[in-house]
């Protein structure tokens, strides 16, 4: 179970790292996109101002054209009237155009309002200058850039939604598997605890937390004849037995190929050491147990023994012995002696 849990946690960690990496890439792209959008907004604003100025100038130009046309028509009419007046003047009074001009050439005649206005309109038209045809092409280029970034933004938002959906499904599946496994371990814990203590009650509970995957685990153990809620009030042997019960409760869900136990029976009395050995016998066909111990009862249950001695100072020597072979040799020696 521990191996599967570690494997599962590793897979979750890898997925979280991938999600974190994708999310960081998303943040970088979002920041870059935001910077591009800001630049684009400034360009669009400038283009909008240019378009506004162009439109205003075009409107002014369009408004001036009919006025100019009307004034030119008025001037033409005045010229016709002058020609007609000159002809009538000559017919009626025998005064030629040259004589009339000579008569008034030394006079400073005031210009008519129409002539002054016509001159001002012509000046306004000249001040408008020529329209920049490149502004339309520039607008198209900026619009194309904007569309490109808009599509990128939509892709990023879609990727973000996909990642969040995957993360949500992973969390849901993880929580479901965790709760199912935890429920099995809790039932097994009560069973192994009762076996080791020959009775009593043991409970596993998740600490209050909205996220069960990150919640703590509370252990309540009551050996037979005791009413104890806090594990610190248990004796050293009772704490060891409770830990052994929890370990094998996990093994009952998913046995590990091998298990290394370092003097786990050190605090146990002889009766509890025997119960511990019975638990080992129950699981020895599913897992290989490597136990460091000084207890004779535990040594007697082993298939192989490895001892460490110091025959010389500073030099360790390992001795190994398979009990079944030793028993067989002893039996042969006994038979030979008989």
TrEMBL record:
Pfam families reported for this sequence: SMC_N
InterPro entries: MukB/SMC, P-loop_NTPase, RecF/RecN/SMC_N
Positions of the RecF/RecN/SMC N-terminal domain: 86-316
Keyword field: Coiled coil, Cytoplasm, DNA condensation, DNA-binding
Coiled-coil boundaries: 5-60, 153-180
GO molecular function: DNA binding
A GO cellular-component term linked to this record: cytoplasm
GO BP annotation list: chromosome condensation
Superkingdom field: Bacteria
Listed name of the protein: RecF/RecN/SMC N-terminal domain protein
Species the sequence originates in: Leptospira weilii serovar Topaz str. LT2116
